[in-house]
Amino acid sequence: MSFKKEKKERIENYILELIKNGNHEDVKQKTIYACDISPTTYYRYLKNLKDKNLIKEDKNNRYVLADVRKELFCYKNKGLYEHEIYENDIDQFIKTLPKNIQNIWYYAFTEIMNNAIEHSSANEIHVLVAETPLDIIIVISDEGIGIFNNIKSFIEETTGEEISLEDAMRQLFKGKFTTKSENHAGEGIFFTSRIMDLFMIASSGLFFSHDNYKDLEAKISDIVPNSTLLKKGTSVMMQLSKNSNKETRTIFNQFTTPDEGFFRTEIKLKNFCEHGYPVSRSQARRIFDGMNLFKEVTIDFEGVSDLGQAFCHEIFVVFQNKFPDIQIKAINANENVQGMISRIINTEKLLKKKVKN
């Protein structure tokens, strides 16, 4: 059976997407079913992709996307300017892609590279750019102080309170956090992490990511073999499809306005509560520390099965009474969580009503 060029490309891209997403066991059956082709035709497509060097076998004899090209750049961290690095070295990988993708990469790269230049205290910074048939992947690495260690030290020095490395890492979920407020607004990681298809930071054995990606260490190790940067320094990995429809203005419009600036934030509660059960007031205070800098705070309860009364009261009563002009919105709350929130809020309303009377 002979297919038109458009259909052939569609089938090839479908197989590539399945391989990219790690569906190794299901690639064959899903392709045969979704594309209505025979096993013989499927294997012919697989061979064509391999012959074109678009896929390869890994050490476990599973197909993975091959690198179209891959290059490592090393810089002495002295007199560096992120825009010059982008124009001289990075743009060659991006300039033929659609304008929206060019804009995203310019913003993302310059923001993260600037962080490495100004915050890492590293002597050298490494940038690895990899192009696959579907994506551009950029890893910015250094062997400096480590981003989470830097945040931890800053908070302990400015507040006098000890915090864990995990809690230091979680500050990045909120937005507006910076250790150098005179030069930074604390927006770069917040927005960059939301506009990328995949964004993760590895440092001090910890991973920062908005989503629970499987095998986070393996994902970075596939790009940076034998990397020791997961233990020392910082490694930031960004990945974006070459066919992405995303726009920088879309992500900015979700959280900013020309008049109010960066006024809205959104946090996934499961990223702050490892066991999925927020209970105590101290947890709530730690999570909502700094939220008074925003006018709107959205709490995403996805993956949270239940909610402690004290935790809920601290946010929806204590914090809300202290900052009545801040709007707190709950999304993806199950029946148990929404019930607790409603009871806490309604009880507070009744108490206020009795006091007035």
From TrEMBL:
It comes from Acetobacterium woodii (strain ATCC 29683 / DSM 1030 / JCM 2381 / KCTC 1655 / WB1). InterPro entries: DUF4325, HATPase_C_sf, HATPase_dom, WH_DNA-bd_sf. This is Uncharacterized protein. Residues 106-193 form the Histidine kinase/HSP90-like ATPase domain. Residues 283-338 form the DUF4325 domain. Pfam families: DUF4325, HATPase_c. Gene3D superfamilies: Histidine kinase-like ATPase, C-terminal domain (3.30.565.10). The lineage of its organism: Bacteria, Bacillati, Bacillota, Clostridia, Eubacteriales.
